[in-house]
Specification:
The protein is α+β, with helices and mostly antiparallel strands. The chain is built from two helices and four strands. It has a four-stranded antiparallel sheet, covered by helices on one side. Strand 2 and strand 3 form a beta hairpin. Helix 1 crosses helix 2. The chain is globular.
Length: about 80
């Protein structure tokens, strides 16, 4: 089974604590093996998730909601 890389633009991240909260919630999703976040404090951060299967926007949105006030960017 090959890994799938899913990249999402996310708003609301401002610090390392935010990165940790989002990382923890995304890692809890089924099949997720790695989460990498390029933090742009107060802007649009790039979140790359490595999984064994593609993630849906609904799964990511739910994880972001659980982590705090973070949202997929409308780019």
């Amino acid at each position: 089974m090959s890994a799938t890389h899913n990249t999402f633009a996310v708003t609301g991240l401002t610090c390392g604590h935010c990165v940790g909260a989002v990382t923890d919630e995304l890692r809890a999703l089924p099949g997720v093996s790695e989460v990498d976040i390029d933090l742009v404090a107060g802007g649009v951060s790039t979140v790359t998730v490595t999984t064994s299967a593609p993630l849906t926007e609904e799964q990511v949105t739910a994880a972001l909601d659980e982590a705090g006030n973070y949202h997929l960017a409308n780019i």
